[in-house]
Amino acid sequence: MTLSLWLSLLSACIVISFTPGAGAINTMSNSLRQGWGASIWGVLGQQIALLIHVVIVAAGVGLLVASSPLLFAIIRYAGAAYLVYLGIRMLLSKPEVASDGSSSGHKLTPWAMLNRGILVNLLNPKAIVFFLAFTPQFIRADQPLLAQYAIFIGTVVVVDILVMFFFFAGTARTFQRFTATYRGAKLLNILFGILFILVAALLLLIH
């Protein structure tokens, strides 16, 4: 991969990572409810899903998903349903109140955050179609493919980790003062619950 092509890839990855979506909402939610450091597990889960998407595209399965309305619809509705499920759980959840009156949300294990991160990004067929259109722009069939894919996915993952962890998770830390009380934590649960449901609606309505 030439330097100019890699710089184009880097620029595209930065723009894409800063675009708000289910992954960004999940990251901010984890940072607020579980802590900034712990939110890295959700971010890593999202990267595993990105790796799977690229492997699917590289293996040619992405063409099947893109060309099969039924398969696309099944994954699409499953993804939307999962986001609605997360949203409803957050809307109904009650922050735990400590003995000093402060609020601490329900704690998730690193494994639970990792799994949720994988599912949030994986159950999005538009991501497969996006990578199907995006990947060929930076891969040259007449050059060694393994090295190109390694550079491609390495750039995508590193940029997304930096943006998710240091920007979205870091930005969420500014709202920590709102979680100091039961009322503030409950309002944030409602906010993020609504955001998850809105993203699910967008997934279904935007073609």
UniProtKB/TrEMBL annotation:
Membrane topology: Multi-pass membrane protein
Residue spans crossing the bilayer: 48-66, 73-92, 112-134, 146-167, 187-206
Predominant cellular place of this UniProt entry's protein: membrane
Subcellular location as annotated: Cell membrane
UniProt keyword annotations, A-Z: Cell membrane, Membrane, Transmembrane, Transmembrane helix
PANTHER family: ARGININE EXPORTER PROTEIN ARGO, HOMOSERINE_HOMOSERINE LACTONE EFFLUX PROTEIN
Protein name: Threonine transporter RhtB
Organism: Glutamicibacter nicotianae
Origin organism lineage: Bacteria, Bacillati, Actinomycetota, Actinomycetes, Micrococcales
